[in-house]
Amino acid sequence: MLTNLEHLGLAVPDLAAATALYTKLLGTGPYKTEHVASEAVDTVFFQVGGSKIELLAGTSTDSAITKFLEKKPAGIHHVAFEVDDIEAEMARLRAEGFILLNEAPKRGADNKLVCFVHPKSAGGVLVELCQSIAAA
What order do you get walking across the sheet with 51-58 strand by strand? Predict the structure, then answer.
């Protein structure tokens, strides 16, 4: 079950410029920056109330973010929802006919397990499911 709007992912061509812009816009700096090698992206997170803004910049030509920005201007890349049990939610969505881009959850940014729902099956929107990873 989707429990919360976790974050909006924004694709940006210049992470430093976007970080400065959102710091001014939100009146506060980011709480975290992170490189996600498996996705070839650098991320910057801002807390906004109970949700977050994630700025994403590709670090290689193979990055999904780099490819996104080749086709579209900077802007919303995905909408992420928090889930309590990502595997159960993936099974539920498959049963409902949604196309998942991941066979199994994978480790994402901000200490999360993630899975993406293909935009073709979600009204043109890339949807990310996020489950917090328990601290060891």
Answer: 32-36, 41-48, 51-58, 2-11, 75-83, 127-132, 112-117, 106-108
Report whether 11 contacts 56 (CB < 8 A): yes
- Supply 79's token pair: 């909408």
Pick the CATH number of 2-132 from 1.10.1040.10, 3.40.50.2300, 3.40.50.300, 3.10.180.10: 3.10.180.10
pTM: 0.89
* Structure-block tokens of residue 130: 């996020």
**How does pLDDT run across 36-61, given as a tens digit for each residue?**
998 899 999 999 999 999 999 999 99
Measure the CA–CA gap between 119 and 59, rounded to whole angstroms.
23
